[in-house]
Amino acid sequence: MELKEFAPTDAISLGAIVETEIGGEKKLYFVGPKAGGLEVAFDAATVYVITPQSPIGAKLLGRRAGDVVPVAGGRPPFRIVSVQ
Predict the structure, then answer these.
(1) Which residues pair with 17 in a beta bridge?
(2) SS3 (DSSP) at 81
(3) Helix (H, G, I), strand (E, B) or coil at 56
């Protein structure tokens, strides 16, 4: 898979590293073609691998930094902090 270099205003697509925040807690996701559910330690952080077909992957695709993403089940929405 060839990795794309994302500009701060680019929409999320395959190959993106996405930082999210909910209630002050930040998480990093890598949108990959396979291996959803894998957790990778990187620079003292955990990066969660998700696929576009996963529930969170489907919610993130096409969104941009600053977007607020609703979550089902009465849980609070999360904010997309950055796309790399």
Answers:
(1) 30
(2) strand
(3) helix
Q: How far apart are CA 83 and CA 30, in angstroms?
A: 10
- Separation CA 82–CA 1 (nearest Å): 22
CB count within 10 Å of CB 48 equals: 17
Identify whether the C-beta of residue 3 lies closer than 8 Å to the C-beta of residue 14: no
Q: Alpha-carbon distance 35 to 26, whole Å?
A: 21
| Average pLDDT value for residue range 10-37 | 93
Cα-flanking dihedrals φ and ψ of residue 11, to 5°?
Answer: -75, 150
User: What helix, strand, coil percent values describe the chain, rounded to 5?
Assistant: 5, 35, 55
The 10s digit of each residue's pLDDT in 28-72 is 999 999 888 889 998 889 999 999 999 999 999 999 999 999 988
8 Å CB contact between 32 and 53: no
